Amino acid sequence: MNTTTLTPVQHSRSVERIVRGQPTSDGDGVKLTRVLTQPLQKRLDPFLMLDAFGSDAASDYIGGFPSHPHRGFETVTIMLEGRMRHKDSVGNVGLLEPGSVQWMTAGRGIIHSEMPEQEEGRMAGFQLWVNLAAKDKMTAPAYRDVPPADVPALALADGVLIRVIAGSTLGVSGAVSRPTTEPLVLDIALPAGRSFDAALPAGHNAFVYVYGGGVVDVGGDAPTRVESERMAILANDAAADGVRLTAVQAARVLLVAGAPLNEPIAQYGPFVMNTTAQIHQAVEDFQRGALTT
Ligand code: FE
To answer: Domains in the chain: how many in total?
Structure first.
């Protein structure tokens, strides 16, 4: 853990829009909230999806996510509570435990399952989908499990705690760094009354998701109040050098930013390509057992 001083943001981005997620289910009946939905994919390019899941009731998660395919993008699973077992067609097996992160590059194709490794107790976390550039969509699949101790953590003097999942902040490099989309993913714990300034490249699309029951003022001089379980899309402002987050009530905040790809997005369920023809090819490859070869 590092202790460092804060570099204040001179001009904070403001909130363009607050989004309330849509309750839905996926996999074998896992209840979740889809926060970043398909209509927001262009606005939040390169991010394709954010699901938040959290339940004390085993019936909400026990079905898990049985074997299913992906092609054309990356999935990032951020476990907060509970345990899930990952298995995939590449031969990887991993246990997702509280505080761990799994970064999977589906590339040209992967078939995997994510099943709960518990029959009771709380299961909570996020899954974020990050698009791959056209040139990288058919890359070889890759998978990385990051145990809790390997997620770089930054403890600021005023009690603010930051887990640097991807990208870098205040000179600390995250567990994962990716070219092209340059994703920044921070999990921030803000005590009541405390602020955190995150530097953001002006060209990145960015959003925050407030959770943990807190309330956060987002922005500089005239901030927007964001309640728990809400996403705030941050305005793209060429003059802004980051975002200021101030907790009105102690909160956790997921801050996500990335460089847009500005390419066509064609999605059919677990396949995200650039054209309909490529989607048809993915479905055909999957049906004839050739997705992963
Ligand atoms: Fe999956």
So the answer is: 1
